[in-house]
Design goal:
globular; 16 helices; about 0% strand; mainly alpha
């Protein structure tokens, strides 16, 4: 709503409009906290506090806050690949496969987070993004502290450390991916944010807690993803930071508890104990799953078997040495995309990732404000970490992980538009 129209509006209209604007602020802050703490809080905050007022304001003003973004076509391609896969799923498994795939396609609402943040954040005061960031970091640290407590309590009670799976308020695999992204964003803010000395000390403290929580979770794929994201951030932000990698690695080995060291060593050679007696030796369970899932994909290479249908076919494709059963996904983004949506879906995903990286890189390079610079750098690192972790987990199918990526992208779009508006206004003067 432009200034002239707002000034000419009736007092009642202006009161309603201002109330809706104020209603969104706690929603945005609670949403940021929910990203790292609770999926329920995340959904209630973004849809009830931000999206609903956005729709009401659009109806009142008769001017929907819509504008073209660089992710419109990539999102459309992703949905199109799901629709095509769902349509052909009827040929794979009949009505059951087709209906299930269409159901998951129609209920996939994660991209709404991107658009709600991109359209809902503009128009708010400049302190709101900062408040959202601190809410996100505090919630991530609180969840990490809880995960460390869970781990310590279980070990103190005599539990086998390899059976402890602390995740705070989240499922432990999801928690690992979420913390990987949270640490990446916090590191970007520490390196490129306009922070006071007190702010740097506070953020460093929260980062330490997050790292402890991620270590306690024993989620190896998240460790690998974090290493990749930190490496990329160091290359982009300041290559001198690369010299710290060997020292950090040595320090981590020296001070990390033995269970964590053993878990890290198991990345090289992890076997399923259930197959210890097999004549051909125990297969690593992910390799076992990848091999079976690729057999399914080989029979349906073009459009796949439909969304969330892997479970129904898995057991009929596994071999005699396989020890896994009733597997819902491939623990790998790229294999899962091929088996569910075929090469069509993998192509759409590649288009989306390219556009996402381009958005973050362009934002970082063209940034004129610390907010845009931090969001761009964080997005670059988060996307790379997501892609690397995706070799070992189906992170693309994890709502909480994708919500953070979409929120980062939406916030960058909103902040970039605000930055361009301020630049244009300054030039006009």
């Amino acid at each position: 709503m432009n200034t002239a129209a707002y000034t000419e509006a009736s007092p009642t209209f202006r009161t309603i409009f201002n109330f809706l604007r104020l209603w969104q602020i706690p929603g945005l802050i609670l949403f940021a906290a929910g990203l790292a703490f609770s999926i329920s809080l995340l959904n209630w905050a973004i849809f009830a506090f931000v999206l609903l007022p956005l729709i009401v304001k659009a109806e009142l003003t008769r001017r929907p806050p819509l504008y073209h973004t660089s992710l419109d076509w990539p999102f459309l391609a992703l949905y199109a690949s799901m629709i095509i896969s769902s349509a052909t799923a009827y040929l794979v498994g009949g009505v059951e496969f087709g209906n299930r795939s269409f159901f998951w396609t129609l209920t996939y609402a994660a991209p709404l987070i991107y658009y709600t943040v991109a359209f809902g954040l503009p128009g708010h005061r400049r302190w709101v993004p900062g408040a959202m960031a601190w809410a996100f970091f505090l919630a991530a640290a609180a969840n990490s502290a809880y995960a460390v407590f869970q781990f310590a309590r279980a070990v103190a009670e005599g539990a086998d450390v390899f059976t402890v799976r602390p995740g705070g308020r989240l499922f432990y695999m999801t928690y690992g991916g979420v913390m990987m992204l949270a640490i990446t964003v916090a590191l970007a803010a520490f390196l490129r944010g306009n922070l006071s000395a007190r702010g740097r000390v506070g953020l460093a403290t929260l980062l330490t807690i997050m790292l402890a929580g991620l270590a306690a979770s024993l989620v190896r794929s998240a460790w690998v993803g974090l290493a990749a994201s930190v490496f990329v951030i160091a290359v982009v932000a300041d290559r001198r930071l690369l010299w710290a990698f060997p020292a950090v690695l040595v320090l981590a080995v020296l001070i990390a508890p033995r269970p964590i060291i053993k878990r890290a060593e198991s990345i090289i050679n992890v076997a399923s104990e259930r197959a210890a007696g097999e004549a051909e030796g125990p297969p690593e369970f992910r390799v076992d799953i990848w091999r079976t899932t690729l057999r399914i994909a080989r029979d349906y290479p073009l459009t796949g078997i439909g969304v969330h249908n892997t479970l129904r076919l898995y057991d009929s494709y596994k071999d005699k040495t396989s020890v896994e059963s009733l597997v819902p996904h491939a623990h790998n983004n790229y294999i899962q995309l091929v088996v569910e949506r075929g090469v069509v879906g993998l192509a759409a995903f590649s288009f989306f990732v390219f556009a996402l990286l381009k958005l973050f890189v362009r934002g970082y390079r063209r940034a004129r404000s610390p907010t845009v610079r931090v969001l761009g750098l964080a997005g670059i690192g988060a996307t790379v970490g997501f892609l690397v972790e995706g070799f070992f987990e189906y992170t693309f199918g994890d709502y909480e992980i994708m919500a953070i990526l979409y929120a980062l992208a939406g916030a960058l779009v909103a902040a970039s538009r605000a930055e361009e508006g301020r630049t244009a206004a300054a030039q006009a003067l």
